[in-house]
Amino acid sequence: MNRRVRQKVAKKSKERVELPSNPEIGDAGLCPDSNEDVDWTSLPDDTVIQLFSCLNYRDRASLSSTCKTWRVLGLSSCLWISLDLRAHKCDPGMAVSLASRCVNLQKIRFRGAESADAIIHLQARNLREISGDYCRKITDATLSMIVARHEALETLQLGPDFCEKVSSDAIKAIAFCCPKLKKLRLSGLRDVSADVINALAKHCPNLIDIGLLDCLKVDEVALGNVVSVYFLSVAGTSNMKWGVVSHLWHKLPKLIGLDVSRTDIDPSAVSRLLSLSPSLKVLCAMNCPVLEEDNTFSVNKYKGKLLLALFNDIFKGLASLFADTTKMGKNVLFGVEEFKDQGQERR
């Protein structure tokens, strides 16, 4: 760069650069007035409904009260198919205020006995699934009233804490009032008698998933009569007669999965169940001290069966469930999905 060029560059750098102005836009176009009101009611309906779906039920109800347009959109049935009450305390007064929105409610989750009492006031006749946490204080009267008001119920789960005040009377009410029941899971019951289980077997022909966890007493003979069951769990249940269990439960024609974790099941009962049951594929026996103390027990001879226990190679056992693992590249997870699809087809 010669001397003349350097002088021109220095002169240009000292000059002020001004952008051309546009009289049509002006300064207001570059910096809009921050105090200008925004008409939120002009948003598309789909956008507003998507906004509502991101909120919990209390905020959704509050936002619906802001204007007439949003009140109508806030009542859209797609927003009230499922309701989760666990994050807030729900009393009967709150339930009454939500009742008009819950006409098409199908799934509800709650926490505590007080929320269980409030469910009755929702008047949601189309409920398909009820899941309750921390229901230690729930009573027979409350549970019986809930199932009597929801005859279309397909899933009922109460746990994992113990339902100490729930007796056989309430379970009978479930059997009589919910003929479409498919899944029943209860925890910490004192006594599940033969009459109760036989009532479930007779009046709930679609019952495929039963969980009686941490119960003090369950009638083993009666459970052998529930021929519709696919998945059965008695995890943590005490006073089980495993000789009776192994003699009867292997005759269940559709039983695919059995969970006996945290029990005193012995190796002979496990062996009998795995060898004699034509349909059983998975037996879960985690934290079973009697079984784990027997160093001679082996499950390698049960082809097509899987025992989930602390002394087993679980992933190797999963792979053994499927005849051809070469085409899957030994992808165990893919095999599990295939096994799950087969179970759905059988239903």
Automatic annotation (TrEMBL):
Residues 1-14 have a biased composition (Basic residues). Residues 37-83 form the F-box domain. Residues 1-24 are annotated as: Disordered. InterPro entries: F-box_dom, LRR_dom_sf. PANTHER family: PROTEIN ARABIDILLO 1. This is F-box domain-containing protein. It comes from Populus deltoides (Eastern poplar). The lineage of its organism: Eukaryota, Viridiplantae, Streptophyta, Embryophyta, Tracheophyta.
